[in-house]
């Protein structure tokens, strides 16, 4: 988790060091120029220490979306004012936490569930000996929200509004059933459907999509963005898979400058990784249908199967080894879901 902490006082700087020492080793500390002068910090050779020589709201224009977690050693009211206008949606905003100047309280302020602020709040409070303050209704009531559940199993919410409605039922004491078929727990499989037994006319349903699909892509030079997107959607539909279940795409080193491929992944918001020839050669046994043409051209018998496997943890199974799609090959690897 990319984390930044901000302070504007000498006590605040002490708290920053305490958080770095006890909670986050990889932590960027932003210190106001005034405090840096008082403590003679400007001469310190520390790449994790950044002196602030501008107003914090202006600084945040550059850093707010750079980090997953922002910690402010400052009054909560002041922090509310300086982050105003920078947050957009609870499913995309970074987590924001405040700590008072004497490190008595750690307060989860923004993105408590999906951003992880609630969990990080507890972690920080435990590390520095402070009291965690969490105000989300499900947490204070000792109940779990749908978005929290999705975080815990490292999955992605299908619809935030649906999740809010189901969480509202939980918070208000309604019975909400969690459908986890035994075969998912015993065999790490996903369910294609669910049977709900209820006498209620209207039932709120929220779908959580595990991001455990890794795709390997091979394509001809010059293939268009539109073609790649169309064929990828087609292949995922054929496998009855959600497009948003894709955690990462992968291809060979020779495709790292393939404009159509790069643009397609950018439009679909799918990260892509490229693997070198030496890495692919080690896994050529995965290729069931070896191509002599590809071997002669780039030195390996195939791209999609080894790359899909390399992008994953290696624990799981191929749902499709090689799908031929008019100038493209696609392999789909499903990673096991850890319980």
UniProtKB/TrEMBL annotation:
<feature type="domain" description="Cobalamin synthesis G N-terminal">
    <location>
        <begin position="60"/>
        <end position="139"/>
    </location>
</feature>
<dbReference type="InterPro" id="IPR021744">
    <property type="entry name" value="CbiG_N"/>
</dbReference>
<dbReference type="InterPro" id="IPR036518">
    <property type="entry name" value="CobE/GbiG_C_sf"/>
</dbReference>
<dbReference type="Pfam" id="PF01890">
    <property type="entry name" value="CbiG_C"/>
</dbReference>
<dbReference type="GO" id="GO:0009236">
    <property type="term" value="P:cobalamin biosynthetic process"/>
</dbReference>
<dbReference type="InterPro" id="IPR052553">
    <property type="entry name" value="CbiG_hydrolase"/>
</dbReference>
<dbReference type="InterPro" id="IPR002750">
    <property type="entry name" value="CobE/GbiG_C"/>
</dbReference>
<dbReference type="GO" id="GO:0043779">
    <property type="term" value="F:cobalt-precorrin-5A acetaldehyde-lyase activity"/>
</dbReference>
<dbReference type="InterPro" id="IPR038029">
    <property type="entry name" value="GbiG_N_sf"/>
</dbReference>
<dbReference type="Pfam" id="PF11760">
    <property type="entry name" value="CbiG_N"/>
</dbReference>
<protein>
    <submittedName>
        <fullName>Cobalt-precorrin 5A hydrolase</fullName>
        <ecNumber>3.7.1.12</ecNumber>
    </submittedName>
</protein>
<feature type="domain" description="CobE/GbiG C-terminal">
    <location>
        <begin position="213"/>
        <end position="332"/>
    </location>
</feature>
<keyword id="KW-0378">Hydrolase</keyword>
């Amino acid at each position: 988790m990319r984390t930044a902490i901000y302070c504007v006082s000498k006590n605040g700087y002490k708290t920053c060091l305490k958080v770095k020492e006890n909670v986050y080793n990889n932590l960027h500390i932003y210190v106001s120029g005034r405090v840096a002068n008082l403590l003679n910090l400007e001469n310190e050779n520390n790449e994790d220490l950044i002196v602030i020589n501008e107003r914090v709201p202006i600084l945040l224009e550059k850093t707010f979306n750079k980090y997953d977690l922002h910690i402010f050693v400052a009054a909560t009211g002041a922090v509310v004012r300086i982050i105003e206008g920078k947050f957009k949606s609870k499913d995309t905003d970074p987590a924001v936490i405040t700590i008072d100047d004497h490190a008595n309280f750690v307060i989860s302020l923004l993105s408590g569930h999906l951003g992880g602020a609630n969990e990080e709040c507890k972690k920080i409070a435990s590390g520095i000996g402070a009291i965690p303050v969490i105000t989300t209704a499900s947490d204070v009531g000792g109940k779990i929200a749908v978005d929290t559940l999705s975080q815990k199993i490292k999955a992605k919410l299908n619809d935030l509004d649906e999740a809010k409605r189901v969480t509202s039922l939980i918070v208000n004491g309604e019975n909400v059933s969690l459908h986890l078929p035994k075969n998912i727990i015993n065999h790490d499989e996903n369910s294609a459907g669910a049977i709900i037994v209820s006498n209620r006319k209207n039932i709120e349903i929220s779908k959580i999509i595990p991001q455990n699909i890794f795709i390997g892509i091979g394509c001809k030079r010059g293939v268009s963005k539109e073609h790649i997107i169309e064929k990828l959607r087609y292949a995922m539909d054929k496998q009855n898979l959600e497009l948003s279940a894709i955690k990462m795409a992968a291809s060979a080193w020779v495709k790292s400058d393939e404009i159509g491929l790069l643009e397609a992944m950018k439009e679909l918001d799918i990260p892509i990784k490229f693997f070198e020839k030496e890495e692919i050669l080690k896994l050529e046994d995965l290729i069931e249908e070896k191509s002599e043409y590809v071997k002669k051209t780039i030195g390996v018998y195939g791209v999609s199967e080894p790359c899909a496997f390399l992008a994953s943890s290696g624990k799981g199974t191929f749902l499709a080894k090689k799908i031929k799609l008019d100038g493209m090959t696609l392999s789909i690897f499903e990673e096991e879901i850890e319980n």
